Amino acid sequence: MTEWLGLPPLASAHGGQIDGLIGWTHVFMFILFIGWGAFFLYALVRFRRSRNPVASYATAKSPVAKYVEGGVLVLNESFVYTDGEKATRVWKIKSLGNGDYEGTAGDVVGTARGRAAGNALNWAYEIDLPIKGSTWRVHFDDWMLQQDQEVMLNKSTVTKFGVELGQVFIFFRRIPASP
User: Fold this and answer.
1) How far is CA 127 from CA 93, 131, 134, 161, 165, in A?
2) Is the distance from CB of 111 to CB of 102 less than 8 angstroms?
3) Which residues contact 136 (CB under 8 A, 6 or more apart)?
4) 127-170 tens-digit pLDDT
């Protein structure tokens, strides 16, 4: 291996071992080069511009956004869990201007804060979550994406002390007001 690396002649008793280590280091670097090169090519194909359009960061222009900016939005969430348990959370959300929002709900500790841009809203808050007879204070980081005028998707990451406990995916559908 020392010949094809162009290393000088051995000048010590352990020179052969050192040259061997240098040789294997170069082999390992070549393997890393091939692996990272393959990953780079995969990322270029997977995340190319044609498959991932650029998001619009313009302020929302829907009639709902204009209504919300003028006052307080009341959002009633109804949950049905796989074990049959049901829960509700009523949010009172207020616009602070420039795409910033704050809100309160019964089980939220303090005030939730959020920022909207385009069809996305990032919402962060803490909740005292009942788990097996005790209560854990956990942090929620929600990303809400409005799909159209009727549907919104929400991905929530739940953490405690910065460690991710899990993720929650929620589907929101607007229910027309009954006459």
Assistant:
1) 16, 12, 13, 13, 13
2) yes
3) 128, 129, 160
4) 988 778 888 899 999 998 888 888 889 899 999 998 998 998 88
Quick check: pTM over 0.70? no
Place of tokens 């909207």: 116
pLDDT digit string (tens) for 89-101? 888 888 888 888 8
User: Looking at residue 168, what is its pLDDT?
Assistant: 86
CA distances from 144 to 34, 60, 111, 121 (A): 38, 13, 18, 5
Contact criterion met (CB below 8 Å) for 140 and 122: no
How deeply is 122 buried, as exposed, middle or buried, from its count of CB atoms within 10 A (0-12, 13-18, 19+)?
middle
Contact of 112 with 104, CB cutoff 8 Å: yes
Residues 20-54 as b or e (16 or more Cβ within 10 Å = b): eeeeeeeeeeeeeeeeeeeeeeeeeeeeeeeeeee
Distance, in Å, from the CA atom of 172 to the CA atom of 179, rounded to the nearest integer, reads: 21
- Where are the extended beta strands (E) located within the chain? 72-80, 86-97, 100-104, 108-117, 120-131, 134-146, 151-160, 163-173
Is residue 138 within 8 Å of residue 165, measured between CB atoms?
yes
Whole-number Å distance between alpha carbons of 155 and 164: 13
